[in-house]
Specification:
Helix content is 75%, strand content 0%. By secondary structure, the protein is mainly α.
């Protein structure tokens, strides 16, 4: 099962290279410094970055653990924007791990928040990823509906990932 259409756009470690042990160690150090300094948002965002590193490396249990901790911390400080950004890759990790009910719940959570913030690109990307999850759960008609909605958003924005969504619509996944 694939990781979905869309990689998270946050975390420079995911752009063009794979994270290595050094990146994981640095994010872990940052988490520890933020925790010791009682900088809660920094701790939550460091956990999000750790999750991104582990997911990119295919270490899904570690990724899910970091993402869940990140979401919990960010919820505690009511940083709903960052909760959306942590829920989205958490959903992708759940999907990769075959935990499709959890993936669908987290995609829906991220989608609701992105809509609340009127973040159209993130909304479109989440709709496409939700389509992948629905396809994997044997709901191709529902998946098609979400992918079509994603295209209606991504095409006018000129997002190149619309081509992948279009391919999934024509070829199926």
């Amino acid at each position: 099962m694939g990781g979905g259409v869309l990689p998270p756009r946050n975390g420079s470690h995911t752009r063009g290279t794979r994270p290595d042990r050094r990146a994981i160690d640095l994010y872990a150090q940052a988490r520890d410094v933020f925790r010791a300094s009682n900088i809660t948002r920094g701790e939550g965002m460091s956990l999000l970055s750790l999750g991104n590193c582990h997911r990119t490396l295919g270490q899904l249990d570690a990724a899910i653990s970091h993402y869940r901790d990140s979401v919990a911390i960010l919820e505690r400080i009511d940083d709903q924007w960052s909760v959306a950004w942590a829920s989205y890759p958490l959903a992708l990790a759940y999907q990769q791990a075959g935990q499709l009910d959890q993936a669908r719940r987290q995609h829906q959570r991220a989608l609701d928040l992105f809509r609340r913030f009127d973040d159209r690109r993130s909304e479109g990307l989440t709709l496409a990823a939700l389509g992948d999850t629905l396809d994997a759960t044997g709901q191709p008609d529902e998946a098609r509906r979400y992918r079509q909605e994603a295209l209606r958003i991504l095409d006018p924005l000129g997002d190149p990932r619309a081509d992948t969504v279009r391919r999934h619509l024509t070829e199926g996944v």
